[in-house]
Design a protein that fits this description.
The protein is an alpha+beta fold and 556 residues long. The protein is 52% helix and 13% strand. The chain has 14 helices and 14 strands. The chain has helices at residues 7-15, 18-21, 36-55, 62-80, 82-100, 113-159, 165-180, 227-239, 281-346, 354-386, 398-408, 433-449, 481-484, 507-517, and strands at residues 184-189, 195-201, 243-244, 255-262, 265-273, 394-396, 418-421, 429-431, 457-464, 467-473, 522-526, 532-539, 547-548, 554-555. The strands form four sheets. The chain has a five-stranded antiparallel beta sheet. Strand 9 (457-464) and strand 10 (467-473) form a beta hairpin. Helix 3 runs antiparallel to helix 4, helix 3 (36-55) packs parallel to helix 5 and helix 4 packs parallel to helix 6 (113-159). The protein is rod-shaped, with a radius of gyration of 44 Å.
């Protein structure tokens, strides 16, 4: 059973008459038998031999003259085919009889032995003419087969590995057009799924006609084809059948359109300008192979798109599941804490001292703050991915930024000591202070989750290779080696944490996006003495901002 790619070719062979597929591209065919030019030149060669023979008739014997007359017969067969050769043979016999066989200038033969010679001459001339034309055709076929093999190899080499539809159309059109020396156009359903010209190549239009410069138009040709040809191409595409010149469907069109079929469905159309120049059988076989190869490549492009779409759907499902799992845990824990504390306060049968009420209110406040951070992380993630979060870089002092971030976390840090190690001569950085505060808040929050109770969090900064490096270190177990390269991925969470509160997996991904938008780098590592160290770099400010003192004196 034939593969789907071969369907259009079989239809092509059924629809196109034999006269179109059997004509040669160069040299005569039966249709050219009465070519006046070829016959005239053939007779001129016979006349030239006659003049030479007449000039040296005394030195030449009749047998020698008869052999000389074979020259125009052989040359005519070799150059123009058998019919000019046959005409040359008949003319040679007549002139040989009239001019060189007694009686001279009479179409009469006294010696009957010459009658047999004339007959043998015609037979030999006809055989030589026919065989010479056959050899000529075989040589042409061999050259064409060699050219076909070479062009097919070049086409397969050029198109192998291509997974873009536009490149396939360009290579296909260029190869077919240059080999067949015809105008070739590739049409595919593009905008609104309507058939449009994707690429067109016409090797007959040279650089002296280059004016348009339209994409898809080669060597100055217009990219578009006329509306009648587009209608025929549309029919071929919709019906997945060959249509156009020398077919049974819309044969008045100057183009022949072949659908490129993949899995029984036309994915595009290849159009070749035929006009009155019919194709040679070798060209049809080569064109058949081109169409099949193009159809296979188009099917591969479709498979690639399907794989990418499936991967995108799978990734979306994975992110959806991760988001659901993360948020369900991250929201459920603080909500449970808030509900339990509120329920305890609202219980009329229980009495709480002021200290107990304060503890319950602190739990409610802590849970609400954690919910607020989850929502802010979600909103920040959405703004980062949509491009709505714009940087407002300015020269800023890291010590102030760190202090503001710690102030935002003071409720959660009341039982955790924080050590800030920032040298007084640390240069200013050029960054958006609000976003860097967001980064520090997320890094401090992450350190809290992985730190044992009462252990310190260390925030340090130092100059490094023309930038400033900021680090947030904790005293926990550290990060497993397998998680170091994934820790900044969206929704990725390390499950081995001290407090079993591993977050939504958004905080560190936000940190990475913010730092990289500043042109810096962020990385995670394990400290030499234990714990995890989150470090990021920021560019230095070119100069420090001017500070106006109270007495009006400016200090740089």
């Amino acid at each position: 059973m034939e593969s789907p790619q071969r369907e259009p070719v079989s239809g092509m062979k059924e629809d196109i008459p034999d006269s179109m597929r059997t004509r040669q591209i160069d040299g005569p065919s039966p249709d050219d038998a009465l070519s006046v030019k070829h016959h005239a030149v053939s007779l001129l060669l016979v006349g030239l031999v006659t003049v030479l023979s007449w000039r040296f008739s005394k030195e030449l014997k009749p047998l020698n003259i008869a052999f000389l007359y074979l020259i125009p017969v052989v040359l005519s067969a070799s150059w123009w085919g058998r019919w000019p050769s046959y005409v040359a043979a008949l003319t040679s016999v007549i002139l040989f009889d009239v001019l060189f066989i007694p009686p001279i200038f009479h179409f009469t033969v006294y010696d009957t032995r010459y009658v047999g010679s004339f007959f043998m001459f015609l037979v030999i001339a006809f055989i030589i003419g026919g065989k010479t034309e056959e050899l000529r055709r075989e040589a042409q076929m061999a050259r064409l087969r060699e050219k076909s093999s070479r062009t097919l190899y070049e086409f397969a080499r050029n198109i192998a590995g291509i997974l873009e539809l536009e490149v396939i159309a360009r290579v296909l059109c260029t190869q077919v057009a240059e080999t067949l020396e015809r105008d070739v156009v590739a049409l595919f359903p593009l905008r609104k799924k309507e058939l449009e010209v994707l690429y067109r190549h016409n090797p007959l239009l040279r650089e002296d006609n280059k004016e348009t410069g339209e994409p898809g138009a080669s060597m100055g040709g217009s990219r578009n084809i006329d509306s009648a040809a587009m209608a025929v191409a549309g029919w071929a595409y919709r019906n997945a059948k060959v249509a156009g010149r020398y077919t049974e469907t819309l044969a008045e069109c100057q183009y022949l359109f072949l659908p490129l079929i993949s899995k029984g469905k036309a994915e595009g159309v290849l159009g070749i300008h035929i006009g009155e120049r019919k194709l040679f059988p070798e060209q049809w076989r080569l064109l058949e192979t081109w169409v099949q190869l193009a159809a296979v490549l188009i099917e591969r492009v479709k498979l690639k798109e399907a794989v990418q779409e499936a991967a995108l759907i799978a990734e979306s499902e994975r992110l959806h599941t991760a988001l659901f799992n993360s948020l369900s845990h991250e929201l459920k824990t603080p909500l449970s804490t808030i509900i339990a504390a509120v329920s305890a306060l609202m219980d009329p049968g229980e009495y709480y001292s002021p200290g107990q009420k304060k503890d319950l209110l602190d739990e409610i406040n802590g849970g609400a703050r954690r919910l607020e951070r989850v929502v802010e992380n979600l909103l920040d993630t959405a703004r980062l991915e949509s491009g709505m979060l714009e940087l407002k870089p300015e020269s800023c002092d890291l010590e102030d930024v760190v202090g503001t971030a710690i102030g935002q976390m003071k409720d959660l840090l009341r039982d955790t000591p924080v050590e800030v190690r920032i040298p007084r001569d640390l240069p200013f950085v050029r960054a958006d202070s609000v976003l860097i505060e967001l980064v520090l808040v997320n890094l401090i929050d992450n350190a809290l989750k992985f730190s044992p109770g009462g252990s310190a969090i260390i925030i340090s900064a130092r100059g490094k290779n023309g930038s400033v490096e900021v680090s947030v270190a904790d005293m926990g177990k550290g990060i497993p080696e397998a998680d170091l390269v994934k820790i900044f991925d969206k929704f990725y969470r390390v499950t081995d944490c001290e407090k079993k509160v591993c977050g939504s997996g958004l905080g560190l991904s936000i940190c990475k996006a913010v730092i990289e938008s500043h042109g810096g780098e962020i990385q995670a590592a394990n400290g030499e003495g234990g714990g995890a160290v989150m470090s990021f770099t920021l560019p230095r400010a070119e100069k420090c901002p001017e500070i106006k003192l109270e007495d009006g004196v400016e200090n740089g």
